Structure formats: C-alpha cells, structure tokens
Amino acid sequence: MKKTENPAATGFAALALDPRLVTALGALGYEEPTPIQSEAIPPLLAGRDLLAQAATGTGKTAAFALPMLHRLSLTEKGRKGAFGLVLVPTRELAMQVAEAIHRYGRELHVRALAVYGGSSMSQQLRSIERGIDVVVATPGRLLDHLRRGSLSLSDLGLVVLDEADEMLDMGFHEDLEAILEATPKGRPIALFSATLPARIAGLASKHLQDPVSIRLDGRTPSGLPSAAAGRVRQTAYVVSRAHKLAALSRILDIEDPSSAIVFCRTRTEVDQLTETLTARSHRAEALHGGFAQEQRDRVMKRFRSGATDILVATDVAARGLDIQQISHIVNYDVPSEPEAYVHRIGRTGRAGREGVAITLFEPREQWLLRNIERLTKQKIEMTSVPTVADLRARRLELTRASLREALLGTDLDSFRVVVESLSEEFDLLDIAAAGVKLAHQAGGGTDDEPEIPKVSLQVERPRPPAGPVRAAPVRRVPKSPDAVTLFIGAGRQAGVRPADLFGAIAGEAKVPAGAIGAIEITDRFSLVEVPGDVAETVIVALRKAKIRGRKVTIRREREAPRD
Ligand code: AMP
Fold this sequence. Notes:
Blueprint: H1 7-10, H2 19-28, H3 35-45, E1 50-53, H4 60-73, E2 84-87, H5 91-104, E3 112-115, H6 121-130, E4 134-137, H7 139-148, E5 158-161, H8 164-169, H9 173-182, E6 189-193, H10 198-207, E7 212-215, H11 226-231, E8 232-238, H12 244-255, E9 260-264, H13 267-279, E10 284-287, H14 293-305, E11 310-314, H15 315-318, E12 328-331, H16 338-345, E13 355-361, H17 366-376, E14 381-384, H18 388-408, H19 413-423, H20 428-442, E15 483-488, H21 498-509, E16 519-521, E17 526-531, H22 532-544, E18 554-556
Helix pairs in contact: 3-4, 4-5, 7-9, 16-17, 21-22
The chain binds adenosine monophosphate.
C-alpha cells in the first residue's frame, strides 16, 4: 500500500455523514466507526426507529449523536424547540452525553443542554429561552419542564432512550411513558439498552414503529490458543481517568518491557501518550492511521531494531503488523469488543516466550473486563496501580540486578583499587552501599513521584455480555419488584466506600445487609437499592446518622429536588 492512509474517508465518510462531522471526528482522532456505529448510523440517518442492544464502552453515544447532528444540520432555520432529545438515567450520563454532542457538533455550532434534577432550574430556563438544538435529560426533570410548558417537543426530529434498562431499573417507567405519550406521533425513536428484558421489549413494541433491530455481532471470539494462554500474564489496573497517564508511565517503569505496544482508541490519544512517555524518558513512538507509508516504515524499522521499545498505536495502525517479539501488550482503554482484546493480546506470548497483557480500566468499565474473562474463560487479575513504594522497591531490584551482572563480569580490577583505598577509612559494607546509591541514582527516576490515588472497585451492578448470543448470558440479579433506589449525597470524593453504606444502612436502619441491593458510587453521590418496604426507615435513620463523619442528603433517587 503506497498511498497515504486516510481511513476517515473510508470509515466515517463512507457512512455519508456531513463532512463537518467527519472533520470533528478526525480532530478527535477517531479512525473508524465501532460496530454499533456502523450498524446504527445508516438507519438513523434514514429516519428509521431503532432498537439496539449496546452498553457503555461500545461507542453507542456517537452511534446516535452523529445521525442526530447530521439530520439536525438539514433542518430549516427558525425552529423553536429542540430537534434532538436524549433521555438518560443519571445526571452524570446527562453531562457526559451533552459534552459528547458538543464535541461532535462543534463545527455545526450545536447548542446542547443537559437537564437534570438538582441543577438550577432558572439557569436551565434561561438556556432554553436562548434556543437549544439538543436536550439531554433525566426523565423526572424533563417532565417538570413539560408540565411547566418550558420545553416543547413539537419540533423533535429524533428521540433517544439511552441505557433504557437502567432507566426502568431506576423507576422511570411511568415518566418515560408520559414523555413518549407527549411526543408527537411518527417521530423517530431510538432505544439503546445493554440488556433487552421483557420490559424493554414491551416499551419498544408500544412506542417503536417497525424498528431496525441491532444486536452486536454474536460471534464468540475464537479465544486464545490454549498454549499461548498460559504464557500470557493478564493484569488490569483500576485507575480514575484523571490519573491514567501517570499510571501508564508508572506501570511501564515497573514492568520495564523490552518491546511493548500500547493500544489507544484515538489518534489524539496516541500523540498525547507518546509525548508524555517520551517526556518521562521512555523510548516511545507513535503509529496511527494518519501516517504516510514511509513514515510508518521508519517507525517500524526503529521498533524492530530495538531503537524504540514502546509503540503507541491505534488498532487500525497495528493491523497487519507482523512483529514477532512483543513482550508487553498494553490496553490504555478496555477494548469495546472482546474480540479486539483477544486479537491484541494474541500478539504477545508467541513462539514459546512469556507475554504480559496489561489493561487500564475505570471502575465503571469493570463489567467489560468481566465480559472478556467470561468469553476467553481466562482470569484477568484486577488490581490497583503500583504505589510509590512499589516503584522504589522495583527500581532497587533493577539496580541490584545490574550490580549482580557487573559482579559476574570480569573487569572490576581497576575499581578494586578505589575500594581498597577507601577501606582504610570506611567500613567495607558502607563503601559498597555508597556505590549502590550512586549506581541507583544514575539509573534515573526521581524519588519525588506523586502518589496516584487508589480507586476502589465499586460493588458491581450486574451487567450483561455486550453481545446477546455470545456464550452463556448472565442474568441480572433479580431485583425485588418493589426495590427503591436511594440517592445519597456523598460519593468517592468524600471517601465513601461500599462498606460505609452497608455499615450505615445495616447499623442505623437495622436492615439486614443481605437485603441491600446494588450500590453505585460515583464521584459526588451514591445510589443504593433497598427493599421498598424499608426505604422510608432507611431514609429517616440515615438523615439522623453520619456517613464518613458528615451529614448527607438522602432521598429517593427519582425525586429530584424541585427549585
Ligand atoms: P460510549 O460507549 O459512547 O460511552 O463510548 C466509549 C468511548 O469510546 C468514549 O470515550 C468515546 O469517545 C470513544 N469512542 C466512540 N467512538 C469511537 C471511535 N469510532 N473511535 C475511537 N473512539 C471512539
């Protein structure tokens, strides 16, 4: 292949999206659509209804946002109400989706607004008055606006239900029904859900018209060749997004790979990571789909010869690379498809050598890893990022190994003289220790590394496999029909851990720990499922109690505070 690769032209551009969207995606470094994007974008562009099974991490946001923005760009000027409506279960997701829509729609100057309980109503009203194109809302707060008459649905061109199963689980069923009833008939509706239980099917059959149904390809990945499997050590480190770069650099320091490929999702990430790793004295080079063939060849030549030992690449760029000796595969993000994971790590542990597969993940991505474990039938060790003490210990170990090598060598005579002369004045052990210190310091690495905050894994909300017909589907833990989700106004930033919530609810409200359902801890708040008949007791008891030493807001999740 001689010509410069331009996968954008074959990838997103092939989907016939507005060129301004393709430009924005290029700027974000997206190289090609994910499977859910390839499948969902064409029918949504054609104005069809859609029922899609896709969960977080699959690229589902862009799958509905891009066709929404494309169709928005074709609308007449002078429209009063919003064109796009996205309903989401939580305020966190509302903010994330609105942000994504801003990013994708930058060139179109899209006005997107996140509307959720707990944020200032007057501010929302002012934004709505100025005019908006896309509203991303939690159902409760959207209904408030509909009742006040502050938002109109009459100009809607696409309604999206995102994480529909979560919305039903959180008790938003009636609100969703009311919103869909208030939506003018015949407007396209897209329903995205990680699982498709009967209640979702019911909602879909009532409100969707002749929907295109998408289930991600159900092929079970071929799995790792069993011989290789044993030779690949698979470890995943949990880390918050803010500390991922520092964590990657530390892990590479500790692992000290002889040749590694670090996979990332976008070109932007590839460039950013390469820059950071280089600044931290790693010998890293970038490789992505934007490279011309000669440039690509030069990078590969240096990597093969050992002049660089870390290749930072996208999947697209790494496709077709034939490199025999890779000691480490690093997934900077959990791949959205188990197949991609299997494919990537299949590049290490070859020809009888040992290989290491490392994955960085955020707590909310834990289920993606569990999914991979289930499909590959192999365990991935999940652990925290090494501490500064671990790093120091590892550096000392490396110094020790180098010294040992030097001791096994034969050319020490000229240095013995130095030791002998010093030995008249100092103890031999002290002289040796001083020598080790100098060798250690010369080995590089500073001792003033900041600690990377530990992230605790939240108690997992049971999640399904990404594809419906892959392996044995996992059933959601049946939730008692009258379970209620409580909102607790303190989260990770306040140091709240699942044990604190279990302790407070079991201790203060005398609810048996076994009756407490899923717990979700986000940065600023937590959600806990409790049986409906004790919900009030728990609320009253916790209002009097303290969690992590402070009084916190507690209420039923779907009752957003009114202002
Ligand atoms: P989502 O499943 O929508 O939460 O997306 C998961 C992550 O994948 C987000 O960080 C997106 O920015 C990223 N992403 C989505 N589509 C693509 C793509 N085609 N190429 C690279 N990254 C993507």
